[in-house]
Specification:
single chain, 200 residues, alpha+beta, Deoxyribonuclease I, Chain A, six-stranded mixed beta sheet, four-stranded antiparallel beta sheet, Endo/exonu/phosph_ase_sf, Endo/exonuclease/phosphatase, Endonuclease/exonuclease/phosphatase domain-containing protein
């Protein structure tokens, strides 16, 4: 499988940096005391088109790519787990909302990562379509609310795929499979998305 753009979460690497390894460029930021950490890996096709990147925190990084007709912004997110308190969750959402303010209205913004949320199966407005997975939880409600307020659609729910191509995390012993990682695009760009499936 050829990778063009890959988002990383919970890297826990000892260093932060921007470097090349073969045909791939890696931009990443470590978390405090080796915790959290996010990064983006770009094939050279995209790696040479990076015009800027902003490291907001150990949970949010934004990459700006030169593209036509509009620039492309990739925001990689690592949301706290369900054990985190609401204040910590809201702090991350506030940080995510700050990033698109640095773009132009016509730019294409993609937000992807580990949201530690379940939006569930079934249509919920234009943000969640028919093909989610599982039972929606409280964090899923918050993600849907964020998507609605900011005009994003959750692309994982757009396409009919086998359930084995929808789950993104399984519990130890394979006692449960969940869809907690999502790719969000602006609603006006959703027709550019042709497929969204997982390879767990």
């Amino acid at each position: 499988m050829k990778l063009e753009i890959l988002g990383l979460c919970e890297t826990r690497w000892p260093n932060s940096g921007d470097f090349w390894s073969g045909n791939y460029r890696m931009i990443h930021f470590q978390g405090k005391n080796g915790q959290c950490g996010v990064g983006v890996v770009l094939h050279k096709t995209w790696g040479v088109k990076v015009t800027n990147y902003i490291i907001y925190s150990e949970r949010i990084i934004m990459i700006q790519l030169e593209a036509e007709p509009n620039d492309l912004f990739i925001i990689q997110v690592y949301m706290p787990t369900s054990r985190a308190d609401d204040e910590e969750i809201e702090e991350v959402y506030a940080g995510i909302e700050e990033q698109p303010k640095l773009t132009k209205g016509k730019d294409n913004v993609i937000i992807m990562g580990d949201w530690n949320a379940v939006v569930g199966e079934g249509i919920d407005g234009r943000e969640v379509r028919k093909y989610g997975l599982g039972q929606k939880n409280v964090r899923g409600d918050r993600l849907i609310e964020f998507s609605r307020e900011n005009s994003y659609v959750i692309t994982n729910t757009l396409f009919k795929e086998y359930k084995r191509r929808r789950y993104t995390w399984k519990m130890p012993g394979d006692t449960g499979r969940y869809q907690i990682d999502y790719i969000l695009v602006k609603n006006r760009f959703k027709n550019q998305v042709k497929s969204c499936k997982t390879y767990p």
